[in-house]
Amino acid sequence: MTPLVKSVALTLSLGLLPWAAQAAYPEKPITYVVPYAPGGTNDNIARVLSEFLGAELGQPLVIENKPGAGGTLGASFVAKSAPDGYTLFNASIGNLVIAPQLVPVNFDPFKDFTPIANIAESRSVIAINPKLPIKTLADLIAYAKANPGKLSFSSSGIGTPGHIALEYLQVLAGISLVHVPYKGSAPALSDTISGHVDLIADPLANGAVKSGHLRGLAWFGGTADEKELPGVPSLLDSFPQWNFSGAFLAVAPSQTPPDILKRLRQAFDRVLAKPEVIDKLKLMGLTPQRLSVEDTLSILRATHDTSADIIRRANIKAQ
Amino acid sequence: MEDLVSHLAVGVDAAVTWQNLLYCFVGVLLGTLVGVLPGLGPVATIAMLLPVTYGLPPVSALIMLSGIYYGAQYGGSTAAILVNLPGESSSVVTCLDGHALAKKGRAGAALGIAAIGSFFAGTVSTLVVAAAAVPLAAFALKFGPAEYFSLMLLGLIAAVVLAQGDVLKAIAMTLLGLLLGLVGVDVNSGDERFTFGIPELAEGISFVVISMGIFGIGEIIANLERDHHRTQIVERVGSVLPTREDYRRAWKPVVRGSALGSIMGVLPGGGAMLSSFASYMLEKRLSKHPEEFGKGAIEGVAGPESANNAGAQTSFIPLLVMGLPSNAVMALMIGAMMIHGIVPGPQVMTERPDLFWGVIVSMWIGNILLLLLNLPLVGIWVRLLSIPYRILYPAILLFCCIGVFSVNNSLFDVLLAVGFGLLGYLFIKLRCEPAPLLLGFVLGPLMEENLRRAMLLSRGDPTVFFTRPISASLLIFAVLLLALLALPHFRSTRKVAFAED
């Protein structure tokens, strides 16, 4: 081969390579990082989606559980990985925008990630042990004002959406509650049902309200109908300015090439429109929401700002 | 009673179909296999197999997944007895006498008694779940932070009594375990403790890392140094099955262990583990030969093994009755139910009785299958011990590493386990028993968390531990136990029992 032919061939192949790679995307299995141990809502969502996304993309989506540091370990793993569309992140509001305000992390939720799809909003219910003489949100506020510091609430941990939400309620209603953190929603809910703690705001409480183990005072995030939470009003009825809820979204490292992002966004959108996917997400107490990238970002920004404000006003600290 | 019979009939209808029997068998077989492999646990296995169950009907899927869980409990005791590796906290106790028996060439007896005891316990606890799931769930709810604190305190004091050798060393090891348990983010304040800014440590050190490091890697280093001339763990494999004398000594511990396990398994967070360990204590107190404990007493295998198997089964109660998962495996089962469109909770019992009772009946069927599977396998497992070191040890190391990695998909954890391996070697050189360290490590964080939670709820009033009846009785037990430890008579028998050899 003459040097000229060689260099022409080299130029051609170099020029062709990225094109070939992109045209074939995805040409190998995609890693979908779940930042918690198997079994939680985040993990369940990823497992439902991966089944359908695999068929849509023609390559399997392999779930990799990377738990640690409140979900931020998994987030920084994805932020640092190659932006080639083969490592995606199943994010929640908690690990993407709240935790970075409380613990030191080496990623920026807005600079290092770009949204692929908004998956769903989660409906939390503010629920109280039914032994207490409190039937409505107004009762709760009146009782808490008459007995400051007497009522306690459980949460799945410091800085989790359930904690932030009840701090927010205290700020808005001008009441004071004692926070009792747990390691996860299940033990927190268990101690609320048994009456060791009085209140909880958590998606897991939906079932306990429906079965009568807890009394629902108000719900926020997503939607609820009479069948799902009979007689429980929306929190917006009492506090129209309420601007906080838990949500789940799929994100990719921000430097991911636009055509790969386009392919991913299209695939996620198709899967999230499937009735069987919507049904499964609804069963988990979630409200599936297909949003544009811009709307997803603006909601993320708003949730970030609200939580930053609450963290400051309620003086929530970790570190 | 009539209710119970008709409920069980619904369950038999659902569980005894060819398809479900097959899935039950596949579940317990897989469970046994992952349980035997050190460090690999049911959580990773179930997580990997979840997608496989999408296509199955929900009853079959849950039957298979629960089979993996209690199958792994069975398999875990095999690894504890044969190679002294507790894959889960509930098999720490089995190591003490189970491995001692194996070293004496009586691994077959230990494995046989463990299998038969587990089967008996499984039968009892299945009946307990079927008959008393609802009242037991209500009992579990009576346990608040104050009660848990007192229970954990009782457990910690028992950890010292349990230890072999020097009491002072046992206390030191328990305290070291407590310190290791402090690593990670403090639940109450959110502050990081002893993490040195390493994010991988923020959620604490995993049990598997410490256990595989200290028991697995440490033990292997020490053995390589110790046994130049020997090439096998035991020279004599011994008789495969337990003798008549073994049965005579073991049946009472099995009955007591089953009862303890059935009750304590209902308590989330360490209930099943505490039961195995309470059973060991109880048997040692009641035994006519307490001096044999730690050196290969069959009662020390029979009781705890029955207790942890019964506990594994009754730990389904909070999940089935309230929809509350009591451990990581149960959380995965909730995920599996959700994926199949079943919302876990009290309504499952009324809306899907076939599923509820089918799973319960399948547990008993699974226990028969496990017995049929494991008794013939005892001979094969025992022969594993005659594999030469040069093949067995690299294999154990490999599985330890895979097991540790599989917990968090983290390379850091594997390196940490190697560090604990060196520490484990040091402990063997210093003749410090690692069992109290592991118990301190598991119980300490639970105890602290609940102490602070109870104090937060009482607004700083410490009398809450004495005014609540369950908590007060547990504390009285703890004081009695301490008194026993201090009594001269007990001290002297303890000395005999735990004299260093």
UniProtKB/TrEMBL annotation, chain A:
Q: Which SUPFAM superfamilies match?
A: Periplasmic binding protein-like II
Look up keyword Transmembrane and say if it applies: no
Q: Which domain of life is it from?
A: Bacteria
> Which residues, if any, are the signal sequence?
1-23
Listed InterPro entries = BUG, Bug_dom1
Keywords, alphabetical:
Receptor, Signal
Q: Which family does it belong to?
A: Belongs to the UPF0065 (bug) family.
PANTHER family (alphabetical): BLR1237 PROTEIN (PTHR42928:SF5), TRICARBOXYLATE-BINDING PROTEIN (PTHR42928)
Q: State what protein this is by name.
A: Tripartite-type tricarboxylate transporter receptor subunit TctC
The opening ranks of the lineage are:
Bacteria, Pseudomonadati, Pseudomonadota, Gammaproteobacteria, Pseudomonadales
From TrEMBL, chain B:
Residues annotated as transmembrane: 20-40, 52-72, 108-134, 146-163, 170-189, 201-222, 258-282, 316-343, 355-381, 387-405, 412-428, 465-487
Keyword Lipid biosynthesis carried by entry: no
> Per its UniProt record, what Pfam families does this chain match?
TctA
At the top level, the lineage of the source is: Bacteria
Please report the stretch or stretches of sequence annotated as the DUF112 domain: 21-439
Q: Which InterPro entries match?
A: DUF112_TM (IPR002823)
Which of UniProt's keywords are assigned here? Membrane, Transmembrane, Transmembrane helix
Protein name in UniProt: TctA family transporter
